[in-house]
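User: Okay, second chain of the day. Same drill as before: sequence in, structure tokens out.
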Amino acid sequence: MRQTNLQIEAHKQAPEILIVGGSAAGLFAAYLLAREGKRVRLFDANDVQHTVSRTLITTSRLTDVLGFFPQEAVVNEINEIEIFSRQRSVTIPMRQADLVVERAAIVRMLAQKALQAGVEICGGCKFLNLDPGEGGVTVTIHDTHRDRVEQFKTTTLIGADGTFSRVAKIADRNGHETTPILQAIVKLPSGARPKTTQVWFEPEDTPYFYWLIPESQKQAAVGFIAEEGNKAKSKLAQFLSRRGLEPVEMQAARIPAYTHTTRPWRRMSGADVYLVGDAASQVKVTTVGGLVTGLRGAKAASDAILHRRDYLKELRPLRGELSLHLLIRTILNRFRSADYDRLLDLLNEKTIRLLGFYNRDQAARMLFRVLLAQPRLLKFAASLFRGIWQK
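Assistant: Same drill. Structure tokens below.
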């Protein structure tokens, strides 16, 4: 883009709040703020009504965070999980079903709610720069539809522009480690139950896991979280081949990895700059699930703005959960096949019931009660954790 040929238009009276990025977190924050009477303008480089499709599985807490059941985005509900190690397997019945949702449908639904609440959504507007100035910051946008550069001044900016957030890089020089995920859409295998998610631990391929998530009676998403993106396709192809599955569609993404050092807020020239969702690495590193946690981050940011509260204090419950997931991931990264066999051996009837009663977005409650029900799990985890410190 040759900016010398573009006319820069400065807007003297900008909305109270600017949001960069039409992610689910950005749109949710916009909706929450606008319904309380705030003037909100949201910029996205693309058209938020036509985002890339990708199937996600979330816990039932999605409904709690949104405040409504996202019927139009839900393609299936899962009521049990089958977990496989090399020599063992466990089935966990779930008290509340997981929701299989279509990411694009979630974004469209939130965009409609934001528009109805009065948010001005500007598609085709690419974020260029963020400059501190007197009494606020100036956001520079390239409107690709009209081929012109525009500038907006604000004292409240939300960066919701995803994994490779330019707002985060400019405001705080934040850079995120990322994790590639790859999944194939396949015909539901013969014998597979359409309400059952299957998980395979194969640490020789990945420290995470492979999954099969039924989308319907006819098809499923099969994928995994990889360490090395350049080997992901071949590993997934081999996994599919071992199970006689043929991909009809491929979906891929990079997910940010949460760390204790991520800074989701900065004060610049009298302006508050908030980061939410993937831009703030608000992702559970055990499963790299970030929809529910990103929406929780958006709600924390909107609450901080609406009630003039400290964003970091509003984030404490979420950051505590994410830190616990980080601890669990640190331990799981040490696991080998025999360790997963041992882990599944230790899951007695009571622990299995507890794992089905609490979900992945209630990690603290779940872990405490599971360890009480099976103290040998704590001893097992401690032995692996000691090995980390002795390295």
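DSSP finds twelve helices and 18 strands in the chain.

User: Thanks, on to the next one.
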